[in-house]
Amino acid sequence: MKVGSWLQNHPHLLERLYRATHWLFQRLQPPIARIGYQRADRWLRGSEELLKRAMFDCRMCGQCILHATGMTCPMTCPKNLRNGPCGGVRANGHCEVIPEMKCVWVLAYERSQAMPIYGGEIHHIQPPVNRQLEGSSAWINMLTGEDKNVPAGWVGTSTIPVISQQSPLDSPTH
Amino acid sequence: MTEYKSGSRLERVLRSGRFAVTAELNPPDSADPQEVYEAALVLSEVCDGINATDASGAHCHMSSVAICALLTRAGYEPVLQVSCRDRNRIAIQGDLLGAAAMGVRNVLCLTGDDVTVGDQPQARRVFDFDSIQLLRTAKIMRDKGMFLSGRKLTVPPHLFLGAAANPFVPPYDWRPLRLAKKIEAGADFIQTQFCFDVPRFRHFMERVRDLGLHKKVFILVGVGPLRSEKAAEFMRTRVPGVIIPDEIVERLRQTPKERRQAEGKRICIEIIQQVRQIEGVAGVHVMAYRQEELVAEIIHEAGLLPRPMQPGLPEPAERQRRKRTEQSI
């Protein structure tokens, strides 16, 4: 875990590494598609788990948003929060549930401040977790687009067209 | 003309520009609804919405949905609190629809305290949603008229959506931006965690105003009385997210024992009066941990009575009010 912590404390280096890996997988998409995504997933997920567990304490949720959370795995948060910290953070910045552990989101925010490439994504609204992807390879899910598959009713943007066609976001000023 | 999300009494008071008051009803450990009715009788005259808590502190009591069922049938206006700790997305969406069908028009969407802070830490924690996904889902049900799966609702729920904010815990810099995210997700109003550190809250509100958020959401500040310095110690160590500055604990310790409860009440009233002066604060949310009888006194002594838009008080409360008026003549 020592290498992992060192890397995580250098988030800009880590985000460049992430971007390179992302680029690499996209280049490898044609041969992977020929092998077959399901087979590739079976081959990959073991080593992906080992590597990512050593680096990030990865929990193999299958829908990695590491670059949007300061390269700090949100599934290590006992409440599995994907959009930021709860209101139970202790005064010393430690977790409500695990007092010895620093709050994952306190770390995520600090680190994303040092990430010029992806740091701003911490402010995006993350959709509910798809529990069916647990244990599968997040890289393959990225290639197939499975990790972007949200429930049919989900709207990720800030404006939701209301049924009665009114202006959706009322300003409460009178 | 103002467009209402639900037209609830709380929403109407807030949108009219008046300072709003909400209060928490402590749910009983009883199958008898009488305690609920007695508490509601007092609270309905002194606040614009009554919060029915959802196993707060991970201690189970009569459920919030049940409290809302009892309150709505008697004509009171509850705020349904929904925590993500105990129920998955399927149950929560069903509860929102059912609550609206019962007449609930305010919902507070919370992450929820963890199971380990309660008296049944062996339980499984759910957290299928977080508070932001919950808010967004409730907004989708209300504004798109469908479940998360895309399945259409025949009649969508009309709900005034709320969320919590805790500017008193780290990461402090992020908290105003997290508020912005909650507003984007669908929050119409906010109830904060207990405010005992007014300077920190003032600083938070400065950032909120810089971001223009006070114009997009109604912020009600959480306040409450401390019965003694022991109660203060209990709350700051055992209740997640409650930060009490040492000066306040010291102030209570210095007070003679028999006057501590009154001092705690006075501190609460002082805080209400201070936060009321802060630009962007739309109201207060009174939480009396094991001291419900003080809620009405505090609201009265802080100069927040009478509550506006009272016509249409539920029958029992109206009778009580008339009796008191007659007796005072």
Could you characterize the architecture of this molecule?
The complex is a heterodimer of chains A (174) and B (329). Chain A is an all-alpha fold and 174 residues long. Mean pLDDT of chain A is 86; it is low at 163-174. The longest helix of chain A is centred in the N-terminal third of the chain and has 20 residues, at 37-56. Chain A has helices spanning 2-8, 11-27, 29-35, 37-56, 104-113, 138-144. In chain A, helix 4 crosses helix 6. With 329 residues, chain B is α/β, with parallel strands linked by helices. Chain B has a single domain, classed as TIM Barrel, CATH 3.20.20.220. Chain B has helices at 9-15, 34-46, 64-73, 89-102, 131-143, 175-185, 198-210, 229-238, 246-254, 260-276, 293-301, 315-328; strands at 20-25, 49-52, 78-83, 106-110, 160-165, 189-194, 218-223, 281-286. Chain B has an eight-stranded parallel β-barrel with strand order 1-2-3-4-5-6-7-8, surrounded by seven helices. At the A-B interface, helix 5 of A face helix 5 and helix 6 of B.
Question: Which features characterize this protein?
Answer:
heterodimer; A: 174 residues; mainly alpha; 6 helices; globular; disordered C terminus; B: 329 residues; alpha/beta; TIM Barrel; eight-stranded parallel barrel; 12 helices; 8 strands
Number of strands of chain B: 8
Please tell me the overall pLDDT of chain A: 86
Radius of gyration of chain A: 18 Å
Largest interface: A-B, 47 and 61 residues
The secondary-structure class of chain A comes to mainly alpha
What is the gyration radius of chain B calculated from CA atoms? 19 Å
Percentage of β-strand residues of chain A: under 5%
Give the CA-based shape of chain A: globular
Approximate helicity band of chain B: 40-55%
What is the terminal separation of chain A in angstroms?
Answer: 55 Å
- The helix/strand series of chain A, from N terminus to C terminus, equals HHHHHH
Percent of residues in beta strands of chain B: 5-15%
Q: Quick one: how many beta strands of chain A?
A: 0
Oligomer class: heterodimer
Give the count of structural domains of chain A.
1
Poorly predicted tracts of residues of chain B: none
The CATH architecture term of chain B is: Alpha-Beta Barrel
CATH class categorisation of chain B: Alpha Beta
The spatial strand order of the largest sheet of chain B comes to 1-2-3-4-5-6-7-8
What average pLDDT do the residues of chain B reach?
Answer: 93
Assign the structural class of chain B, choosing from mainly alpha, mainly beta, alpha/beta, alpha+beta, or little secondary structure. Answer: alpha/beta
